[in-house]
Amino acid sequence: MTTKTTPSLGFLAGVTFSHGIHQADTGPVAQLLMTHTPPRRAGETVEWIKAGMRALSACLDLSPIEEEPRYIGSRISLHHGIARLDYGDDWWELRIPGTGQAWRKHVAAGGPVRLTLSFEPTPTGRTHEDLARFIEAGKLRWGTTRARPRSRLNVRTSRPGT
């Protein structure tokens, strides 16, 4: 039996997101780049961050950047203007702060989202050159996702006989 291990909530607090919309030949694709802040608290190291981002990449089933990005399932949810990412935990989702209206509208309409994850912690003010270095070094993983269809949740009750 395989046990799924997701990164801790303490680790996930340092995950940052960058987003935008890319106009590909096949149409618009929402972009979502996940990185982690550099070590800032006691016990955090670059190696700890890399290990956590590798675990997060495995939870999301992302493929190496050298391969075509595979479809990783519907992992984005939108509710009252808030975007969240299902990273595989049974209880929690990651809130994606700062998504603009155009990004959310694209996702809500069923448009594809290219999720890219960097193993390396990245400083504030990262540049396109930083991203190019990560790509060349193979320190990225990626996949394609979409918004989950809205469905009515089954509510458990504690009433006898139900």
What does this structure look like?
The protein is an alpha+beta fold. The protein is 23% helix and 33% strand. Strands 1, 2, 3, 4, 5, 6, 7 and 8 form an eight-stranded mixed beta sheet that branches. The chain is globular and about 40 Å long. 24% of the residues are buried. Residues 151-162 have low confidence and may be disordered.
How would you describe the shape?
Answer: globular
Helix content: 10-25%
Largest sheet: 8 strands, mixed
Report the total helices.
4
H-E order: HEEHEEEEHEHE
Overall average pLDDT: 84
* Intertermini distance: 32 Å
User: Would you report the number of β strands?
Assistant: 8
Alpha-carbon Rg, integer: 17 Å
Low-confidence regions: 151-162
Structural class of the secondary structure composition? alpha+beta
Strand content: 25-35%
Q: Which descriptors would you attach to this protein?
A:
disordered C terminus, 4 helices, globular, alpha+beta, 162 residues
Summarize the SSE layout with pairings.
Layout: H1 9-12, E1 15-24, E2 27-36, H2 46-60, E3 63-64, E4 70-79, E5 82-85, E6 94-96, H3 101-108, E7 113-118, H4 128-137, E8 140-147
Parallel strand pairs: 2-7, 4-8
Antiparallel strand pairs: 1-2, 3-8, 4-5, 5-6, 7-8
In short:
The two termini are 32 Å apart.
